[in-house]
Design brief:
Blueprint (H helix, E strand, L loop, with lengths): L4 H5 L2 H8 L14 H9 L4 H15 L9 E6 L6 H13 L5 E5 L8 H6 L15 H6 L4 E5 L8 H10 L2 E3 L6 E3 L4 E5 L4 H10 L3 H14 L5 H6 L2 E4 L5 H18 L3 E5 L1 H13 L4 H22 L4 E6 L5 E5 L1
Parallel strand pairs: 1-6, 1-7, 2-3, 3-6, 8-9
Antiparallel strand pairs: 4-5, 9-10
Helix pairs in contact: 2-13, 3-4, 3-5, 9-10, 12-13, 12-14, 13-14
Bound molecules: adenosine-5'-triphosphate and magnesium ion.
Magnesium ion binds next to α5.
Length: 330
Amino acid sequence: MSDSILDRLTDKSALLKLLEAQSGGPRARLAPDQMAAKLRERVRGQDHVIDDVSQLLMIEWAKEKRKRPIANLLFLGPTGTGKTELAKAMAEYLYGDEKSLLYLECPSFSGPEAKTHLIGTPVGYVGSGQGGKLTRPVINNPKRVILFDEVEKAYSGVFDLFLPMMGDGRLTEQGSGEVADFTQSVIILTSNAEAQAIGQIQEQVEDYHEMVNAVKSHLASSGVFRPEIIGRIDRVYVFKPLEGIVIAEIAVMKMISAAKEYGLELQHVDPQVIFDAMVAGAKLAKFGIRELDREISAVLGPSFVAAKQQGAKRVRIGQAPNGDLQVELV
Ligand SMILES: Nc1ncnc2c1ncn2[C@@H]1O[C@H](COP(=O)(O)OP(=O)(O)OP(=O)(O)O)[C@@H](O)[C@H]1O
Ligand SMILES: [Mg+2]
């Protein structure tokens, strides 16, 4: 997939005209390096994050020895803006498989038992042979992107584990006594804490670096993270709300992959269709982008089935005179 999905599949200038009234300005251009380009195939509209993280990872990756993780990152920003998607894309790029992502939902580690769940049960207690949900996968395969989602919801004792993990790249598993080595891992924390305040800072401070510093100070002073944790984080990235043209691009990416699931190749999409899809998604504000996902499958699925039954290999998506979506055979 190239940067010009929209150019290939639709009349982009017509779409841009439709967007003019509400768009947030021209899109940033592609950065040269390969990793950034690869990540951008999956994550759109977050070039400020992708460019910086690619550079950081390239530099750390080149080191022959490390005494800590490759990087400790904090992802902030509104829901549905690509935080988890970028973590998956990084896992796929760095380790050749999205499955090297170890995904830990911190709301399920909110009680005092969280620690033993993560690093195993001490010898002499029931379940001591099982290993921890964090340590065991890393002992089995240390080449991982580890994502702690909604980290602020974790039990406070969990943060005690973060210090040796993020600081020395090591954690000893209870029960087995084996050491999980994180020096080949990338650690990502995501947080929705203080989302409103962070959103405001994002709107008010224009310069990105100043904005990130303001966000960091806010996080420190609001007590969400202990200063030792903030001190171990290499980069804080604030994801931007998605702009119209970016949502259009994501909508097209989703239409392409929906068609592919039925063995169909998508050749063209009427810009009005994309525009309408975006408006529908935007109306559903908070879950906009996820809603778009469901809408696309629900609306296009039956038409793709029909197209398939008529023996189609390639299709176009247009609009019927009454405004309904129309899948046309090519
Ligand atoms: N910037 C983006 N580029 C491409 N696709 C995106 C982007 N943002 C969201 N999506 C799409 O929306 C879905 C949800 O995004 P994702 O899971 O990355 O959100 P999130 O930022 O992690 O949100 P949350 O804070 O709710 O966890 C993804 O699977 C992807 O299909
Ligand atoms: Mg997420």
